TrEMBL record:
Gene3D superfamilies named in the record: Umud Fragment, subunit A (2.10.109.10)
Reactions catalysed: Cleavage of hydrophobic, N-terminal signal or leader sequences from secreted and periplasmic proteins
Organism: Candidatus Gottesmanbacteria bacterium GW2011_GWC2_39_8
Domain of life per record: Bacteria
Enzyme class, broadest EC rank: hydrolase
Entry protein name: Signal peptidase I
Primary location group: membrane
GO CC annotation: membrane
Amino acid sequence: MDIQSRLSAIVMDTVETIVVALSIFVVVYLFAAQPNEVKGSSMVPTFHDGEYILTDKISYKLRDPIRGEVIVFKAPRNPDVDYIKRIIGVPGDKIKVENQTVFVNGAPINEPYIADKTNLFGGSYIKEGEEITVPKGYLWVMGDNRPHSSDSREFGPIKESDIIGRAFFRYWPPTVLGLIKTAEYPGGK
């Protein structure tokens, strides 16, 4: 085999490898997981502006969302924008905010991850002491930085069909690299 034939074989092997790798990347990106950048301060102290996470796009095709999971979804008022929030209530749950505490199905939830107490503002979807039942096909979500989060308190429950996926791994910056844990709430999943 001459040098030109060897070079041609090496180039073809390299091109095949690149095409296969790109194909796998595209399939994973479109159907399994995608990177997302955290923008803003609505999830501080759990996530900070500029951090990067991987979003699992398969879980909710196989099972229902679970209270305490962090999700990425299309913003209700602007579907071109992605929001990252924590699931507080699933379909059938009764949600209430009273005295700056969130109640799920009558029990106050322990939220050691939040930056500050849960306040309600004029014009909110939910009123102080009012109980809301999360409809079928919807979720109640809130940011961990309650004073600086546009969430279900403002726009109401979100459609499950607007979920992009479950945040499961933070990969940037390297100092916070690791799996994203699900908060535990009363009443289990």
